[in-house]
Specification:
By secondary structure, the chain is an alpha/beta fold. It has two domains: 188 residues, Rossmann fold, CATH 3.40.50.150; 62 residues. Helices cover 28% and strands 33% of the residues. It contains nine helices and eleven strands. The strands form two sheets. Strands 3-2-1-4-5-11-10 form a seven-stranded mixed β-sheet, sandwiched between helices. 32% of the residues are buried.
Length: 260
């Protein structure tokens, strides 16, 4: 799977400079889950280490995989700034999330920040879940999050760019701002064709990608088909209920091996 994160120069630096990402409330949730796990953690889609590094700082051993060469390079730069004890707890590797194969199993596998929404077809989703199932020890948990679809926003999508990051300075002195737009909604496929547009010193770079959106009932069916049972489902990272209008769907599942 070619990564849209590798199409823009210095993308890892740009990603780490987006205030919206730094302000997300998911880090503490995943750190708590990692600390509760009795064994090593695997993060699928570890990116630049936004969640991986805090988990390692909390004393947990963690492996991070990502399909993007640039994101992993930036993660290694961030990791190099950490104390030796933190560095010793982390392994990094480049893998396609649909068919990764590692020489160990894990007590917890996480796929934070909507990683699963990059899997736009049923085949890709089932391949990914099969890979997860191969890498869990008995009793392990699989935790991921997706956004709860806002149909009012999807219906109103008109392709217009909207700014989500005002102009700021990068560490190297260049200027940077970002906009986003939904170019098209494919209702039958439940896919939004999205673009994040980065303006760096006036040069326009477009990261185009597809996001598959899910409803809570669909996720239960998909996981059951792959042999997983949903243990918990939350509507936010404070562990609130899944209700109409909640911002997230956070899923805590375990592999049972019983497929329907």
């Amino acid at each position: 799977m070619a990564s849209s994160y590798d199409t823009i120069p210095d993308f890892g630096l740009l990603y780490d400079s987006v205030p919206l990402y730094a302000a997300r409330t998911d880090v503490g949730f995943y750190v708590d889950e990692a600390k509760a796990a009795d064994g090593r953690v695997l993060e699928v889609g570890c990116g630049t280490g936004r969640i991986l590094l805090p988990i390692a700082r909390a004393g947990c051993a963690i492996t991070g995989i990502d399909g993007s060469k640039q994101m992993l390079e930036r993660c290694r730069v961030n990791l190099a700034a950490e104390p030796a004890a933190v560095q010793s707890r982390i392994k990094l590797a480049q893998h396609d999330m649909r068919n990764f194969s590692l020489a160990e199993q894990f007590a917890l596998i996480i796929a934070p920040f909507r990683v699963v929404q990059h899997l736009t077809t049923a085949d890709d989703q089932l391949q990914f879940l099969a890979a997860v199932a191969r890498h869990v020890v008995p009793g392990a948990r699989f935790i991921f999050d997706v956004f709860n679809p806002r149909f009012d926003i999807l219906v109103g999508a008109n392709g217009v760019e909207r700014e989500d990051t005002t102009e700021q300075r990068l560490p190297d002195g260049r200027t940077f701002r970002r906009t986003y737009r939904i170019a098209r909604v494919r209702w039958i496929d439940q896919v939004s064709e999205a673009e994040l547009v980065y303006y760096v010193d006036g040069t326009r770079y477009v990261q185009a990608f597809e996001m598959r959106w899910y409803l809570a009932a669909e996720l239960r069916h998909l996981l059951a088909r792959a042999g997983f049972r949903v243990r918990e489902m939350y509507g936010d990272f404070a562990r609130g209920p899944v209700v109409d209008g909640c911002p997230e769907i956070v899923v805590v599942a375990e592999f049972t091996g019983f497929r329907v």
